[in-house]
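## retry 2 of 3
previous attempt timed out at serialization; input unchanged, resubmitting
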Amino acid sequence: MGDGDDLTSQAIAELIREIEGGDARSCSGVQERKVNPLGKPNKRFLGRTINTALRHNQREKIQADQTTSNKLALEEVVLEANEVETKDALEQFLNG
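## retry succeeded, writing output
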């Protein structure tokens, strides 16, 4: 518990220093609203950027789905061709 007591005493000492005016910010009196140095955000640019990113992601998803369906269709054709070749080879073996 020695660490907790040390931290508490340090916190109390810091608060006392701030109350006495050791911090330059504490003696400024009335605090004013800080002005954003960057200015207003460009909402049109931000909105268009977000919309463009969403459309791009949607196009990518559609393209990925099409690629997947094309691969599945090709795989089915290959499997059917393999079955036909296997049947032909089996018939030749049995007849030959």
